[in-house]
Amino acid sequence: MKVLIVGGTGFIGSHVTRRLLDAGHDVLNFHRGLQHLDLPKPMLLEILGDRKDLESFRRDFEQFGPEVVVDMIPMTENDARSLMTTFTGIAKRLVVISSADVYRNYELLRGLVSAEPCPGSITESSPLREHLFPYRAQARDSSDVFYNYEKILVERVVTSSPALPATVLRLPCVYGPGDSKHRLLPYLKRMDDQRPAILLEKGQVLWRWTRGYVENVAAAICWGLGDQSAVSRIYNVGEPYGLSEKAWIQSIGDSAGWTGKIIGLEPAGLPKAMRSGLAWEHQLETDTSLIRSQSSFSEPVPYREGLNRTIAWERENPPIKVNPQDFDYEMEDRVLALLAL
Predict the structure, then answer these.
(1) Is residue 341 part of a domain?
(2) How far apart, in whole angstroms, are the C-alpha atoms of residue 9 and residue 39?
(3) Residue 162 domain boundaries
(4) Which residues of the chain have pLDDT under 50?
(5) What's the pTM?
(6) Is the CB of residue 175 less than 8 Å from the CB of residue 184?
(7) What is the predicted pLDDT for the residue at 40?
(8) From CA 146, how far away is CA 140, in angstroms rounded?
(9) What domain count does the chain have?
């Protein structure tokens, strides 16, 4: 199969690219050239360009003739529209990467609106956010990509055309080797620094969030482009259960050899840098049973193995800069000393 990937050299996209090549597919990677994969050149075709100029490369894409286009990085409504304009009449279908931040629970968690917590995990038919542009308040200005970031609008556009049907995959919190956000760092660093306890906001202790190991998420994306049953459908992707934050920390600790305590406190009792302002009663646990019910779908890496690989990578690749306020052990020790009283 001929597959064109928009943004196939990043954290998740690189694993998708490798997996497709290993399976014998012809792959064309469209990217900016900021990251390169260590692969023999004959194995991977590349076109360097900016996502904003996607339509200007239509003739090049036409020459390749992709059957499926995988868009790893559609952030805005304009991204989605240019995707449809560029590949309608060229490709047979799309696989588009979305996010669990489309769900209403996300804006409830952030306190953007108020409502009673919904019982159970989030399914593909659960309510979406009522308010668009969730990160606009954090954007530097209107030129910042997060000013117009909106996966809800991306989904609306790519699912609107029968001429170019799309499979939409709503991803969870993705972790693994190569994670530029170092999602394990806040806990793993404390464990490796032999901290006696990890402090959390009280509500966060039992808060649940669905996660996914990067290679397993890549396997889900590759399944979506190869299985015809996925055409014109939306799937939650991620592990079978959304672990509570306490269980997640304990799981990391078991692999890291840490035996300290996990302590939940009211926000006022924590250092200011550790107060999130989030409404932890609203869960981000997504129900991934739909994709797991597909007989052709499987995850290649067991949970514990994926976590161990991530921990090893984090230890070998610490971030160049760490904000000292994020690891103010002196302040944490004061809190622990008060608890001992």
Answers:
(1) no
(2) 11
(3) 2-336
(4) none
(5) 0.96
(6) yes
(7) 62
(8) 9
(9) 1
